Amino acid sequence: MRSNLALFSILLFSCAHAQYQYGLKPAQLNEYLEQTAKNPDNELVDLEVAIPGIQLDIRYATTNNFTGEVIYRLAKAYARKPGAEALARVQSDLKKDGYELKIFDGYRPYAATVKFYEVYGDTTFVASPYRGSRHNRGCALDLTMIDSKTGRELKMPTGYDSFEAAASPTYPIKNKLARKNRDYLIAAMERHGFKVYASEWWHFDFVGWDKFDVMDIQFEELAKIDSIK
């Protein structure tokens, strides 16, 4: 149990948030802590802790993303507890066939969704700030597969965050290996309660995402909580 003093320190650490001009008021740190105290399923779990050895390639913590800017100050991946537990089962299944997961993104603060919308604007590939993203709810994961022995990514129809038509999980891709790997990944994820997004083969929503709130909590805040558990 956290002491009242520790909880108070976390709240003081919380960074100030800008006004939300799109009419949506995402949950802040204090609301998240209250919700998690009432229901542990609300917890945002660090995937490197939940799935030891999982590979991360957090593009938004670098300039290697479609904005060309560093969006996250920490290269972390979080997901709500039930989603993290389901993802661990996917990883276990993949390892039996010599594969593993590589995570590009998980929980995404609402401020990042606003940034993406203002950079790109087309809600086919970026979420509307008027509704928020399933990433903002901690219930979406962007990922691919790697070979367990080499650590190399398996061939897929497109790269991550491609805005091509071929990024669709149902696109009739001609390359047989890319199609096989894509379909294998989708089947593995869907066996454990995820659903692939209609425009992006790498994006998977955890079924039941609508039970969770949109949040605007920075990774530094979550890391601070983890450090005093």
Describe this structure in words.
With 229 residues, the chain is α+β, with helices and mostly antiparallel strands. It has seven helices and seven strands; from the N terminus they run H-H-E-H-E-E-H-E-H-E-H-E-E-H. The chain has helices at residues 4-13, 29-38, 47-50, 81-96, 110-119, 176-190, 219-227; strands at residues 44-46, 55-56, 78-80, 99-105, 140-147, 194-197, 200-206. A hairpin with a 2-residue loop joins strand 6 and strand 7 (200-206). The strands form two sheets. The protein has a five-stranded mixed sheet, covered by helices on one side. The protein has a two-stranded antiparallel sheet with strand order 1-3. It has a single domain (45-212), classed as Muramoyl-pentapeptide Carboxypeptidase, domain 2 (2-Layer Sandwich), CATH 3.30.1380.10. The longest helix has 16 residues, at 81-96. The radius of gyration is 18 Å and the shape is globular.
Supply the number of helical segments. Answer: 7
Please count the beta strands (DSSP E, at least 2 residues each).
7
* Structure class: alpha+beta
How helical, in percent, are the residues? Answer: 25-40%
Element order: H for helix, E for strand: HHEHEEHEHEHEEH
Low-pLDDT stretches are: 1-18
- The neighbouring-strand order within the major sheet is 2-4-5-7-6
Strand content: 5-15%
What sort of overall outline do the alpha carbons produce when their principal axes are compared?
globular
Distance between the termini: 8 Å
Overall mean pLDDT stands at 91
| Rg over C-alpha atoms, rounded to the nearest angstrom | 18 Å
CATH architecture: 2-Layer Sandwich
What summary fits the major beta sheet?
A: 5 strands, mixed
CATH topology category name: Muramoyl-pentapeptide Carboxypeptidase, domain 2
